Description:
By secondary structure, this protein is an alpha+beta fold. The chain contains two helices and two strands, in the order H-H-E-E.
Amino acid sequence: MVDTGVGFSEVVKENLFEPFAISKADGMGIGLSISRSIIEAHDGKMWAESKPGEGAVFSFVLPLVNAELEV
């Protein structure tokens, strides 16, 4: 996901995925923490990058699994 907002500083980045870490007045601060937990539970990784004043990019990868179903 990419946005074109104000981005975030390195200080904010340090706590970005912590529960209840918020940077806006109307958020609960749990969305990114939950998202990262789900992705990591599936052996994936999630990270964020920002250019302050230009926006932010949130990325994740999940492993490719070749699963065959038994009937």
